[in-house]
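can u do me a favor
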């Protein structure tokens, strides 16, 4: 693993692929067949499950749990203690009382698209897709797909606004237009089955 920083107390499988420039910190675990792109950061105590796919420039903060088969696109931010689940019907045992094994359940994953951010202690209940450049507020529980650029919050999470590429809540600038107060970028709201935004 060229140009990769893995501290001695991290547990990284030799079967994982870690991109150049990435850092794996104290007590983090990266499981077999996980693939991390270039310049990723996995914080203290974070868990990256078997076969998880991460793009480049992702940040997984301290004690986050990214269970397989999650897929993270480029530039995704996972806040401290976030949980991405992977089971529709979690149980420790089968109806007959026997301990469940890997063959007794079907994994379902969370997909997070480019530039999206998940706030601290949020839980994303699989299967859901978090749209590009969206923002999940801290402490939220996401149980359905999040549109691109949506700002969602609460339990269960509901849309409360829009965010731009800077991550700042957009301000209304006309009937179908929104402006980023940080960058001045204009976005236009597109009416469809799932409303979304595009740069003007």
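np, heres the sequence
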């Amino acid at each position: 693993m060229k140009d990769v920083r893995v501290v001695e107390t991290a547990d990284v499988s030799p079967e994982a692929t870690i991109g150049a420039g990435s850092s794996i910190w104290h007590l983090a675990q990266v499981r077999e067949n996980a693939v991390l792109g270039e310049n990723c950061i996995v914080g203290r105590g974070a868990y990256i499950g078997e076969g998880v796919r991460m793009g480049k420039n992702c940040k997984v903060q301290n004690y986050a749990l990214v269970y397989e088969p999650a897929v993270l696109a480029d530039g995704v931010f996972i806040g401290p203690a976030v949980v991405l689940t992977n089971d529709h019907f979690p149980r420790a045992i089968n109806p007959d009382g026997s301990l469940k094994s890997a063959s007794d359940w079907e994994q379902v994953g969370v997909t997070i698209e480019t530039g999206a951010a998940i706030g601290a202690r949020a839980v994303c209940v699989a299967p859901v897709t978090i749209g590009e450049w969206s923002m999940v507020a801290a402490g939220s529980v996401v149980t359905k797909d999040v549109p691109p650029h949506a700002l969602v919050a609460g339990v269960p999470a509901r849309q409360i606004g829009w965010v731009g590429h800077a991550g700042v809540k957009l301000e209304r600038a006309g009937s179908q237009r929104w402006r980023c107060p940080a960058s001045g970028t204009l976005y236009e709201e597109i009416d469809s089955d799932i409303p979304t935004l595009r740069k003007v």
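The longest strand covers residues 158-162. hope that helps!!
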